[in-house]
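Q: Convert this sequence to structure tokens.
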Amino acid sequence: MLKVEHVTKYYGDLCAVNDLSFEVADGEIFGLLGLNGAGKTTTFRMIMGLIDDYTGTILLDGKKIDYSVTDHIGFLTEERSLLTKMTVLEQITYYGVLKGMEEDSIEKKLDYWLDRFDIKDYKNKKIKELSKGNQQKIQFISAIIHEPKLLILDEPFSGLDPINVELFKQTILDLKNKGTSIIFSSHRMEHVEMFCEKLVVLVKGKSVINGYLKDIKEEYRKKNIIICGDIDTKKLKTVKGVIDITKNGDNYLVKIEDKKYVSDVFKAISKCNNITKFSVEDASLNEIFIEKVGEAYEK
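A:
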């Protein structure tokens, strides 16, 4: 388990991370989110032991993170960190040795991952000869070749087509099921919703959302109603609690201020023709993120 407790980091007078606390259990995928400059990268670097002049505590399985612990951490960076003149085998061997692995073991595990990612013919190709998507696969392999206890994934689907996104998704879920603690960071909220049970959203280094995703959605008062049928949108917009109505294909998306207004909306459309769908849904994480981050910036 990773524990981050009351961590604060300053760069001079700038507070990059402000009293941050969260936990990531074994076999859990945790979302660490925020706009660029929110403090995510600083947090990653503190967790990996690259920054140690902070206040608070960061522990992995009860141990302070130093070079004896970092061998159990894997990190997939948003930016490419591959040495492009090396071959795939040379690159992964280099990373594996840095993590304390034996070369024979590295090559066997590399063969497994190259086969799983359908790039086994690229073993002796130079990194610069690979496509962006295949470079991302190699970067991912470099982060997991040593079977880390904790895995940090920063924009893991960058450069991937939909088929390879699915391949990565299944791999991430397999690692989770084997007990790996995973920190997942992405600007794509639909990817976060797909994976993360808990999350933190940072604004200027401070947590503005923190908790279980299901609780965050439940506590957010605004809801969405999906309606399929012939409705009078002008009349519906006059109903108390209705914020906005948009049409998406055959459906209308009706945003309301609070779930207490659901019955009013239902009453307003009950006499309309051909109503085949009336579904009340939580707001998306993307909607919640935009509102909460916007509010924090306005303070």
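The longest strand covers residues 14-24.
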